[in-house]
Write a structure and sequence with these properties.
Elements lengths: L2 H37 L4 H27 L8 H23 L10 H21 L8
Helix pairs in contact: 1-2, 1-4, 2-3, 3-4
Length: 140
């Protein structure tokens, strides 16, 4: 590959980095807000900030690489992309909650919270990805 082609690809990616950042931050804040509201604790804004720091790690490890792949063929609010985000969200939430709780048993798969958090994580990331990064509409 010629050097100018590499330079061009790096330039294109650097133009998108702020949009990846906005998508990531919006997803983290959305998920952590819902988690604080439904946990019925009195954490408030501090809880949203703290949980956002915990949520950013699985998003960075699992969702952002998929997001980069999807942006090669952008589609706004694609149901297929949403289903794939759910597919990657399930093991991400399982691994992350197992690591945080130091419990690698399969018991987590029997809880409603596991599926709710997985679905919400995928939904928020898919929504903000479509808002900030997916430039084409699914009709085009």
């Amino acid at each position: 590959m010629e050097l100018w082609k590499v330079s061009q690809k790096v330039s294109e990616l650097s133009d998108l980095i702020p949009y990846y950042f906005f998508s990531l931050v919006s997803s983290c804040l959305s998920l952590s807000t819902v988690m604080v509201v439904f946990s019925l604790d009195t954490w408030g804004v501090i809880g949203i900030i703290v949980i956002s720091f915990y949520v950013v790690i699985p998003y960075l490890l699992f969702a952002v690489p998929v997001q980069v792949l999807f942006n090669k063929h952008p589609k706004k609010f694609s149901v297929i992309y949403f289903c794939l985000y759910i597919f990657f969200s399930l093991p991400a939430v399982f691994i992350y909650s197992s690591v945080l709780n130091f419990d690698f048993s399969m018991d987590i798969l029997t809880t409603k919270n596991y599926y709710a958090i997985s679905l919400l994580a995928a939904l928020f990331f898919w929504f903000w990805d479509s808002v900030f990064l997916q430039k084409k509409s699914s009709a085009s």
